[in-house]
Amino acid sequence: MTRTPPNPADRPALVQTHSTDVDEHCAQLGGWQLAYDQISAGAFRGSFTQVSLSRLDVFREVTSQQVRQYGQLGRDCFGLAVPCGGEGPVNVNGTSITQDALIISFDADVDICTPRRFQLRGVTLPTAVIEDIACQLGIELPRGLKHRMSALSASPSLLARLRAALAAIDAALGDGTPLADDPAGAEALQDSLLLEIADLLPNLAPAKDTRSAADRKRIVDQACAMMLADAETPVSMLDICKAVGASRRKLSYCFQDVLGTSPIPYWRAVRLNRVRRDLKSNQDPRDGIYDVAVRHGFWHFSQFSLDYKRHFAELPSETLRRARMDASIALRHNSPRH
């Protein structure tokens, strides 16, 4: 594996963010093209740490609530992550996994549902770097790895070594000073991590039966599309069950396995997230809270307010007030001074 000697000018770039709002947290994830929905109820707390080395980025993400993450990491991007902690399993493209598995996205769409009090550690790098390393070291990439997001298993010893390599970079970070002042040391840590990934790649296997997982994911995707197609037009669970060809019990089982929650709570949570985004964007000042709520299928305002406060730990009026205040401050800041 050849490499160019480190240039002292190429100091590792460090990003550290903290947020109390799931959308703000998502917006701070750098170049990732992701959207997040907060699924569980309660105040959100999130943090994101990323150090950019010469050939890869190492990250650590912490979220307090159950979250669905979907979108892309970026074109031609390889991502590898290991779950840490959490009050339950991680759901990856219909496959439920625990901490003895890992997640790989190889230039693919991302769809993960993470539990409460969860931490995800991993790396992202160009797919070309992975393919170059595999070619130079004579490694055959697992069949079906490319253009897919997968939940994969490996031997406990290989996973332990990967976790140790990630932890070594995490420990070296501190406040960012050690790695920034030692490009050669950062390069050595990066090489160690790349070698652990290279050892992992030919020894990966599907974490579970991917065929049945794909069937469950297909049912859930169809149900979600129907639920959210037109919030102002009521649709019943019976209609959804008929459309996807599943009993209510089977549909509930599929949702639990794919998204970690039941259909009705998920449906309500996603619509609440959409209301919150509309309130925060405040695109039409003539829109009142009730107008936005009705637009997303909430017709009983008192029940909506209770559900909203339970889910986000604040009233919708507080969200709107803060959004208008932020917009006013931004307008004053951007206006020319006289």
Q: Look at the structure and name the CATH superfamily of the largest domain.
A: Jelly Rolls
Largest sheet: 8 strands, antiparallel
Shape label = globular
Q: Into which percentage range does the β-strand content fall?
A: 15-25%
How big is the Rg?
A: 22 Å
Helix content: 40-55%
Instruction: Look at the structure and give the mean pLDDT.
Output: 88
CATH topology of the largest domain: Jelly Rolls
Low-confidence spans: pLDDT under 50, at least 5 residues? 1-9
Our measurement of the CA-to-CA distance between the termini, rounded to an integer number of angstroms, reads 60 Å
What letter string, H or E per element, gives the SSE order? Answer: EHEEEEEEEEEEHEHHHEHHHHHHH
Number of strands: 13
Number of structural domains: 2
CATH class of the largest domain: Mainly Beta
What structural class do the secondary elements suggest? alpha+beta
Describe the overall structure:
The protein has 338 residues and is α+β, with helices and mostly antiparallel strands. The chain folds into two domains: 13-208, Jelly Rolls (Sandwich); 211-331, Homeodomain-like (Arc Repressor Mutant, subunit A). It is built from twelve helices and 13 strands. The protein has helices spanning 22-27, 127-137, 156-173, 177-180, 183-200, 210-227, 237-244, 248-259, 263-281, 289-295, 301-312, 316-334; strands spanning 13-19, 33-38, 46-52, 57-63, 67-72, 77-85, 90-92, 95-97, 101-106, 109-114, 118-126, 148-153, 205-206. Strands 1-3-4-11-6-9-12-13 form an eight-stranded antiparallel β-sheet. The protein has a five-stranded antiparallel β-sheet with strand order 2-5-10-7-8. A hairpin with a 2-residue loop joins strand 7 (90-92) and strand 8 (95-97). It starts with 12 loop residues before the first strand and ends with a helix.
